[in-house]
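can u do me a favor
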């Protein structure tokens, strides 16, 4: 158990048990205004098989930003309210409002994953066993001071692991592992990843290095390429370089990669990857076919860092596919046993392969400052923020 707990924190909690706590919520109003605020919500009493977690660390992932900020124009952000209870607002472009129809008027909690201290537990043995432990969870509404969760959904962190170290042990690690698992299940032998200098990209690089999987890393800036090379990446291609297409084709020919996971989503990158895959395959072609190579090439779009429409210029034959890919539908597809095996690997390599790095840590109120929103809102590599709701 957490050392603080053994020194009496549990007794302090029982004497000072809060009845309400702050939760960050995002609201899209019918007039095209996004409002983000901190609202008081009741602190739940855990049921027999549940625990109450004092949330101490929860990351702002790109998937969280999609719900938190929606399609709001970040240049219009204004912050009012008080230092303890700020209210951030921003305008949503009129063209984006039809896509918000399903969430109009709904104040929605945010935060996919996080970690913290179990301060209360239900009567079941499984729940009681977690009392005083630091656990990681994924279940939504994590940008909260307290979160009640079923004991079975909690991952007890290894002794000596802080909440900050365990806060990101679900989304990015499982996504990286699932990309490799998808590659294997669909019959490919190497893969391509874009936005590759991100926390997720660095995890994927470590997995591929450890497992002997060929990986082509695509980045958007020279300094990102330098970072990955320092980490031992063999194939790094900078999409801003004039030699990008030639270098990408060479890397694809060397690795034999025929599946890609694209975090940018918009623009021409996905189509360029398919084009270079076809060119790399044709280097070994023994005869010409007007239908292109028979080798299937697949690009999965799993993010939307580039908000432009996806442009595809079909110069890569007929054996190709492009579609969406999301973590949780994939985990549901492979089943609980296979998913648990992935989780066990994450727990075993939490401080090595799956270590996360944050540019800054803020409080719940700090996450709503104009400066913080301008920092994490664009989802730039190296700008990952951790929220500590206990601050």
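np, heres the sequence
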């Amino acid at each position: 158990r957490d050392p603080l707990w053994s020194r009496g924190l549990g007794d302090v909690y029982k004497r000072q048990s809060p009845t309400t706590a702050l939760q960050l919520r995002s609201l899209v109003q019918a007039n095209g205004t996004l409002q983000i605020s901190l609202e008081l919500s009741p602190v739940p009493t855990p049921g027999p098989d549940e625990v109450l977690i004092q949330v101490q660390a929860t990351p702002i992932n790109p998937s969280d930003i999609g719900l938190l900020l929606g399609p709001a124009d970040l240049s219009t952000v204004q912050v009012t309210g008080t230092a303890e209870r700020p209210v951030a607002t921003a305008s949503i472009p009129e063209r984006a409002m039809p896509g918000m129809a399903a969430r109009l008027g709904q104040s929605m909690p945010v935060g996919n994953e996080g970690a913290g201290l179990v301060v209360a537990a239900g009567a079941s043995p499984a729940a009681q066993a977690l009392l005083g432990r630091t656990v990681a969870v994924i279940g939504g509404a994590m940008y909260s001071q307290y979160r009640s969760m079923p004991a079975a959904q909690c991952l007890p962190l290894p002794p000596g692991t802080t909440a900050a170290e365990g806060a990101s042990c679900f989304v990015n690690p499982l996504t990286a592992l699932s990309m490799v698992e998808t590659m294997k299940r669909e019959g490919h032998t190497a893969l391509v990843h874009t936005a590759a200098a991100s926390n997720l990209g660095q995890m994927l690089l470590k997995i591929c290095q450890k497992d002997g999987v060929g990986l082509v890393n695509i980045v958007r800036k020279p300094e990102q390429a330098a970072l990955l090379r320092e980490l031992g990446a063999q194939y790094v291609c900078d999409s801003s370089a004039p030699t990008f297409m030639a270098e990408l084709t060479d890397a694809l020919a060397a690795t034999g990669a025929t599946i890609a996971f694209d975090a940018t989503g918009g623009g021409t990158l996905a189509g360029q990857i398919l084009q270079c895959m076809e060119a790399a395959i044709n280097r070994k072609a023994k005869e010409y076919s007007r239908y292109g190579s028979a080798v299937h090439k697949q690009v999965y779009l799993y993010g939307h860092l580039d908000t432009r429409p996806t442009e595809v210029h079909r110069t890569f034959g007929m054996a190709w596919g492009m579609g969406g890919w999301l973590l949780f539908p994939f985990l549901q597809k492979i089943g609980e046993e296979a998913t648990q095996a992935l989780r066990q690997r994450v727990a075993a390599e939490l401080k090595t392969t799956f270590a996360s790095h944050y540019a800054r840590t803020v409080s719940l109120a700090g996450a709503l400052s104009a400066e913080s929103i301008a920092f994490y809102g664009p989802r730039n590599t190296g700008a990952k923020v951790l929220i500590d709701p206990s601050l």
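DSSP finds twelve helices and 20 strands in the chain. hope that helps!!
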